[in-house]
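FW: tagging you since you asked about this chain on Friday. Here's the raw sequence from the shared folder, copied in full. Didn't touch anything.
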Amino acid sequence: KNTFLAKNILYNRLDFFTKVNKIKVELKFNHELKTHLLGEPEQREIIKNYEEKLSQYFFDNETVSLIPKHDQDVVNIKIGSDKQFPISELGDGLQQVIILTYEAFIKKDETHAFFIEEPELHMHAGMVRQLMNFYLNETNHYY
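HL: got it, structure written out here
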């Protein structure tokens, strides 16, 4: 009984911290996306190029638009002709793809080292392959 209770408490704490970290990442992503879209033409062009690469690698060439809403701390996404919706409503794998590719693409003119633990955790093997192709073809970083 005590072992079960301890595991349950540990799971609840891990789940809480996972949710807190996910919220922090979403807020940072929202802020950076707004900064780029409201910045210089070159910054807006980077986001446009990123959306095109997302489309090409992960959304079967459907048009992808990332939309930071001014009255919310949530980024919305519009895919093809579908209605836009909060990015949090995407599957975990696609959310993770966006989180894992955004920073690498935005900073592709520099060389950085990225340490990614278990990228396959919420992704289908085919999506992991596309993620690796994205990294190899679109960035010059170390992973």
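FW: The CA atoms of residues 101 and 135 lie 8 Å apart.
HL: agreed, and The beta strands are 64-68, 75-79, 85-86.
FW: great, closing this out.
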